[in-house]
User: Fold these one by one.
Assistant:
Number 1:
Amino acid sequence: MVIGVDAGATTTRCVVATVDGTVVGRGTAGGANRNSSGVEVSASIEAALTEALRRIDRATIAAGVLGAAGSSGAGREAFRAAAGRAWRSAGLTGELGTVTDLEVAFAAGTPEPDGVLLLAGTGALAARFAAGALEQRCDGYGWLLGDEGSAVWIAVRALRAVLAALDGRGEPTSLVDAAIAHFAAAGGTPEEKAGGTPGEKAVGTPAEKVVGMPGEKAGGTPGEKTGGVREEMAQALIAATFAMPPARLGGFAPAVSAAAEQDDAVAVRICATATGRLLHTFDHVGPPPGAVVVLAGSVLLTPGPVARQVRAGLLARTGAEPRTARDGAAGAAALAISRVTGAPVASVTHARLTR
């Protein structure tokens, strides 16, 4: 049997499968991106491995492929070391290979060796493959320096618009109430983490403080709220967002999509800009005519304006519907099978793994 692991920024997934593609075990754990997850990478990988191997004899594992975001370039050796620690701690002795999240995502979408991956989840990038090898990539530089069109990128632009609406620099938007509701539910951070002193409530961290401002309702436009309430709401959002790992900010992106579907002008512009950035990134990896295109990541695989507009743009460019990569761990398992058998994974095996 083989193991495939897709260690993402927010979730780590593991698949155990036979060499004919039959999945016999699955496990999940928290994110394992050293740049944005805020955790020790090997711990998340080991947790996913342990869950997937609960009823499986570890001696039957011939090989494994572990892929991760943030594991290329300067992060390659650090991820390889973390993966090795997790592999040994899980009691595994089979051959271990490490790759980036690009290889596992592309392998999850197609058994073909040539094509282009367009990914927009927590991060965002495009990558062109030839003969199974990465030929060129664009973006994927992380939440601070790139990832244009990603969930985090969308959320950060929306939060900037919300703060601008609250202090009067920007136009009113339904994203104000959406942000207060979302980060009240996701925040709930103790005052010690938000920088408060013992006995104090951190501004806006408990849900009742963020949503139920004194004498005010969270509803209504910013212009209907007093300046003090708007400032309190802004500070509440700042406290909640700075208290969480950057990767978790992407959880606000679905609310931005929902607002765009309801014709909120600010959300519509953010989603349109995200679409343009993603297609621009795709164009710059030099996709050959008729190339297989694989889509990956929550932004592109969840129904919404960005997914819809990107698909339309790709169809206009390539003349074919893109394929989808919904299980990166299965893609990693496909790569592991290929290592064991010494041959490309058959279409029927790939379909069995990824169905």
Number 2:
Amino acid sequence: MAPSSTTTFSLTMQILSLSLLSLSLFCSAFTSQDYSDALEKSILFFEGQRSGKLPSNQRLTWRGDSGLSDGSSNHVDLVGGYYDAGDNVKFGLPMAYTTTLLSWSVIEFGSSMKNQVNNAKAAIRWSTDYLLKAATATPGTLYVQVSKTKCFIIVGDPNMDHRCWERPEDMDTPRNVYKVSTQNPGSDVAAETAAALAAASIVFKDSDPSYSSKLLKTAMKVFDFADKYRGSYSDSLHSAVCPFYCSYSGYQDELLWGASWLHRASQNSLYLSYIESNGQTLGANDDDYSFSWDDKRAGTKVLLSKAFLEENTQEFQLYKAHSDNYICSLVPGSSSFQAQYTPGGLLYKASESNLQYVTSTSLLLLTYAKYLNSKGGAVKCGTSTVTAGNLITLAKKQVDYILGDNPSKMSYMVGFGKKYPQHVHHRGSSLPSIHAHPDHIDCNNGFQYLYSSSSNPNPLVGAILGGPDNKDSFSDDRNNYQQSEPATYINAPFVGALAFFSSQTTAN
């Protein structure tokens, strides 16, 4: 059916709007110094999420040591790593994904990070040191979680943890550990761990070759385990991960993602053969239009497109075509446009923690723009041509919105700008620090701080929160975790996006 004149006019105006936005790259609400400031803060945030023995150069000094006996119930050392969000659980799947995207940010845009690149590497290493422990503590297993009563490379039982509101420094309930094994497989979390270690091996290849080699060798072993003993960790661990980080997309996308990172890190032809032989069954032909800790399909296709665009590896031409489909779905006016944007221009995917999709999409847009630029490429969306510059403009709109160029004139990064959320859904940030209040605050007594109307006493500088709803409305309410909770996987891709814009002189 032919489109109506009203529809045609609407599409024309959307394409015109995109063109005008391209021009706005030269007239920004933010300067390169603003982006540099936000970059520094976005990396600093990870120090607030640290578990374990804090180093002497810890900059967020309101935090203290925590989780120092993690893993001891299983006679293994699982001290370290990151709490994923506002709770005190160490979830393996989002932690590994966070590490992969932090590494990808440095790989693509580390040259633009200047004096922050070492801080970014430190943030990656804090996680990879932990993931190495989790992957090598016991042969044939991968620890995936530490929580308060059980563990699955989860450390900490999320169900019990969510019944408490207490500082990580005060945790006094059992820190049980969850693992996947040959008998209880978890290909999704294992393959994501392999991706994280492989990507990080690229980051440290020049600065610490021996550490890089250790990361890559471990990644290969973990991937072999993930591929040989196939199954979803959601099926093995049940309520320990669901509904918190249930693997809704299955494990196939992580296997292809992990193989792709191992191919890039090792340049071993075995991984090229694996991708060619298994790609179809692992989702190579599936178009998916979001990229998150759960679903890696869009990210994998962009990653593999590099080999086709820059190295003319014809085996990966398919992935370039699917990357184009993903891009076209985001472009207003495109024949295959299907994304939803708020009236203020924010990409909108979900009512809970929506900004995770915004930051991950921004990184993919900028990374794909970089790959396209390397060969003067473009994206064909029907009869329209979308250039690398258009992708940069789309990403910039999202980045600027998060930083405060939005209808509410509010920055959704804590500590950036004049107006930002004060009631962050985060235990350590909302409770008095152990330095200000050395006495123990137990599980139940902490809830008075959750429901308090006072601002958080300890600013979690750099944290990006869940963000506004589909009408650009935001409730600065600590109890509204859907909008006010930060997470490591929201910040990780934003590090790369901010690095890119901090180096653009046109932003001045």
Number 3:
Amino acid sequence: MIFTIDARLKKYSWLDYGLFLQTVMIAARARGLDTCAQVSFARYPGIIADHLDLAAGHDVVCGMSLGYADESAVINRLEIPRESVDGFASFAGFEEYA
């Protein structure tokens, strides 16, 4: 799937769009499907617009694969370490609840 947004919309609309994408991914998972959002598609807006006959004034947000993961494929068993929340975020005002 290719997701686009009206180019006139500002950064807050992009936040809404991110929430929408997350909801699509959660809904797919609830139905037994797997997804993979791919921002790399945003680097090729002209090619995508030509192939999909997109209207002018739309920015490509991302692509998303949708389907059933092949659990036997080695690539689907790759584990990538994650940064702990403390490594990139701080929370203030919650000390009294700790």
